[in-house]
Specification:
Blueprint: H1 3-8, H2 12-37, H3 43-49, H4 51-66, H5 69-72, H6 79-114, H7 122-151, H8 155-176, H9 188-210, H10 228-259, H11 263-277, H12 279-295, H13 297-320, H14 322-332, H15 338-369, H16 372-395, H17 403-431, E1 436-437, E2 442-443, H18 449-459
Antiparallel strand pairs: 1-2
Helix pairs in contact: 2-8, 2-12, 3-11, 4-7, 4-10, 6-7, 7-9, 8-9, 10-16, 11-15, 12-13, 12-15, 13-15, 14-15, 15-16, 15-17, 16-17
Keywords: Membrane, Transmembrane, Transmembrane helix
Protein name: Na+-driven multidrug efflux pump
């Protein structure tokens, strides 16, 4: 398959729309980091950085309930049943998030203390976490609607909502967060208040737009929940996997970063990587989930070559952009310790190259094809075994954390994660008799008794 022909298989219109759903929030989030960096000390950055662990809790729920919807809604061809699945899944997600929201609000103080936040910032951090927890309910609803709008290929809806979201966020941040004379100068808490207001508005806007697709969440019709058995079965594996991964990240990575007093720098470095450098690949990942969720085996066979070519192009762009990182971190992100942040990002670059293939090709295929059990297997291999060993060494004081050690530890974990992911991807291709179309060859299923025997031990 020639390169041009391989790329023709990719729906670049939807890819661009998904990219914008990630880019526009990144732009106003960058404004926020700039405003927080303009305060006299780094206390507001340290407070805002604690949102990273609260996001991990919501990431578990998102990967349990929302991401499997690419498969269970995307492959539903009957319009009435698809509408039913959208409405019933939204109700379940809202109820679940309400329960979690109440839990976090009640136990916010205990959670903040557990993760070792600086004593002088604990009270402000608790208030911030509680406000962001309320905002997260509406943000999650918005993420749900992104999947629905993407499945219906209504890019114009995304553009309308995204422009509204960015405009309102920048407006409210200017008056609530910034260090300008007319601002309330609420710092991190101002960000949380902005999120509550803006997310509530865009959820209302999304409901109005989806009504144009005959998806009316308020009409009085009998809803059926029978289909949720499939949803919960897929969500169980991805949820347990996400819980293990994020629990380990909280107890090992975030706690160690807090202990060495590098919360602000690590948070900015992580934000730069995930909000800017990984942005195109995250959009590609969502597209792959959507395509495979709708077309299944056919999408894997016809599109995987094109996906790989795009990943290679994204890696090249990442490397080419290195000279621009330091001035961007210094002037755009307004970071005082920009050299340390730049070094963190530079060290992690090699490790994230493996992550690009892992996340875009392997994980997205597993999600889209409904094979979330494979995600759990790879998580056990890395998060239980590898990080379990590291954490034991830390408790025995044989591993003394500093910023460099933490960055290398996390990076090595990403590289090791690539191994079981590749192994399971090959197993999926063989098991499902999938023939990926490349230029001069195909990955054809062949009987390899020893390989099959080992994989069967893992999966059965």
């Amino acid at each position: 398959m020639q390169i041009k022909q391989a790329l023709k298989q990719i729906n670049f219109k939807i890819l661009f729309a998904i990219f914008l759903t990630l880019l526009i929030p990144t732009i106003y989030k960058t404004f926020r980091i700039f405003w927080l960096g303009s305060f006299p000390d780094d206390s507001q950055l340290n407070i805002a950085s604690q949102l990273s662990w609260i996001n991990l809790i919501y990431e578990v729920i998102q990967e349990s309930l929302i991401l499997p919807l690419y498969c269970v809604i995307g492959n539903c061809k009957d319009n009435r049943e698809r509408s039913n699945r959208i409405k019933t899944s939204f109700l379940v997600i809202v109820i679940f998030y309400l329960v979690v929201m109440v839990f976090i609000i009640i136990f916010a103080k205990d959670l903040v203390n557990l993760l070792g936040q600086s004593n002088g910032l604990i009270n402000e951090t608790i208030t911030y976490i509680r406000l962001e927890t309320v905002a997260a309910l509406f943000l999650t609803s918005w993420k749900f609607f992104i999947i629905v709008i993407t499945i219906y290929s209504k890019q114009i809806y995304l553009y309308i909502i995204l422009i509204s979201q960015m405009s309102l966020s920048i407006l409210f941040d200017t008056f609530l967060v910034s260090n300008l004379n007319f601002s309330a100068k609420l710092g991190a808490n101002g960000i949380a208040i902005t999120n509550i207001i803006v997310n509530l508005v865009i959820v209302g806007l999304a409901l109005i737009l989806l009504k144009q697709q005959d998806i009316n969440f308020f009409e009085r019709k009998k809803w059926s929940f029978k289909w949720t058995k499939i949803w919960f079965k897929q969500g169980l594996f991805s949820g347990v996997e996400s819980f293990i991964r994020n629990l380990v990240f909280s107890l090992v990575i975030i706690r160690m970063v807090n202990l060495v007093n590098q919360q602000g720098n690590y948070w900015i470095a992580n934000s730069f990587i995930w909000d800017w450098l990984l942005l195109p690949s995250l959009a590609l990942s969502d597209l792959i989930k959507r395509d495979i969720g709708e077309s299944g085996k056919k999408s894997i066979e016809n599109n995987t070559c094109g996906y790989i070519l795009i990943v290679i192009a994204l890696i090249s762009l990442w490397l080419i952009s290195i000279p621009s990182w330091k001035p961007f971190i210094k002037y755009v992100l307004n970071a005082k310790d920009y050299n340390s942040i730049y070094n963190i990002v530079l060290i992690q670059t090699g490790f994230y190259i493996t992550f690009l293939f892992n996340n875009c090709i392997f994980d997205s295929t597993f999600y889209g094809y409904g094979k979330t059990s494979y995600m759990l297997i790879q998580s056990i291999c890395i998060n239980i075994i590898y990080y379990g060993i590291v954490f034991t060494l830390f408790l025995l004081k044989l591993f003394v954390p500093n910023l460099l050690n933490i960055v290398l530890m996390f990076g090595i974990g990403m590289v090791l994660d690539f191994i079981p992911s590749l192994f399971l991807f090959i197993w999926l291709i063989k098991k499902e008799k999938i023939k990926i179309k490349f230029k001069n060859f195909e990955i054809i299923n062949k009987n390899k008794k020893n390989t099959n025997y080992l994989i069967n031990i893992l999966l059965n």
